[in-house]
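Page 37, continued from 36.
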């Protein structure tokens, strides 16, 4: 049984385990022996896998493979806010299935399919395990666009921190993303005020 477990990735699903000839009973026995840990319904992590502080991100992104880490979770991972989110914030394209995840806690935003892919990059949640996340520039623009939901203070703080630690190319990237998302007129005056 353990030899079949070794053929699986560090974080895996019940479906992947089944393909490796591990039954539900096998998974229960492995969990009882503390060889694996259940992160979320149907998502497991091998006990021998490298430690990470981002188990919730891995669990959510495996359960919702078409989702992208966004909003407060992305801002925190990019170190643009000091707050530690109490839930994993993800975005899915409007019109696609909204994942139903009871644990870990999840906040789901729906974005237009036309702009959903703007600014997606990878974040290494654990060695060899990457999850999709919106770039720092996209995260700041989204915070400003959705400051009614996220909070004006948090959005302005994230923008200010981004601008203070950015060079000209990063500010140009912020404006490019804002233009693609139709938010340049919202962002430009704030950029000018912060940089004045």
């Amino acid at each position: 049984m353990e030899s079949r477990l070794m053929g699986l990735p560090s974080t895996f699903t019940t479906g992947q385990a089944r393909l490796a000839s591990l039954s539900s009973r096998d998974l229960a026995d492995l969990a009882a022996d503390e060889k694996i840990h259940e992160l979320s319904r149907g998502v497991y992590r091998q006990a021998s896998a490298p430690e990470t502080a981002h188990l919730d991100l891995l669990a959510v992104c495996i359960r919702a493979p078409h989702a992208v880490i966004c909003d407060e979770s992305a801002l925190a991972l990019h170190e643009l806010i000091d707050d530690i989110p109490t839930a994993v914030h993800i975005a899915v394209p409007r019109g696609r299935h909204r994942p139903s995840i009871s644990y870990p806690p999840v906040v789901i935003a729906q974005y237009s399919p036309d702009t959903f892919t703007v600014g997606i990059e990878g974040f290494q949640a654990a060695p060899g395990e990457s999850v999709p996340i919106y770039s720092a520039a996209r995260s700041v623009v989204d915070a400003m666009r959705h400051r009614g939901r996220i909070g004006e203070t948090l959005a302005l703080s994230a923008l200010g921190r981004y601008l203070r630690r950015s060079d000209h190319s990063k500010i140009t990237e912020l404006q490019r993303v804002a233009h693609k998302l139709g938010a340049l007129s919202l962002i430009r005056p704030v950029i000018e005020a912060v940089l004045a």
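The CA atoms of residues 28 and 36 lie 9 Å apart. Flag for discussion at group meeting. The mean pLDDT is 90.
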